[in-house]
Each structure stands twice: as C-alpha cells, then as structure tokens.
Design a protein that fits this description.
single chain; 31 residues; mainly alpha; transmembrane; membrane; transmembrane helix
Length: 31
C-alpha cells in the first residue's frame, strides 16, 4: 500500500490534469 502523501499528490495531480484537459478548449475559445 502506498503512503498517504503519495496517494494525495497523485490524486491532486490527476484532478489538475483532468481539469486542464476539460477546460483548456473552453478557455482557448473564450480567449
């Protein structure tokens, strides 16, 4: 089982990547 800090940073990175992947086209359209 991985450490809690590793899991936390992995989830944070995944959420950030998903957010950028979903909202980058919309931001580019508005800009």
């Amino acid at each position: 089982m991985p450490p809690i800090s590793f899991l936390f940073f992995f989830c944070l990175f995944f959420i950030t990547f998903f957010f950028l992947l979903c909202f980058a086209p919309f931001c580019s359209l508005f800009w």
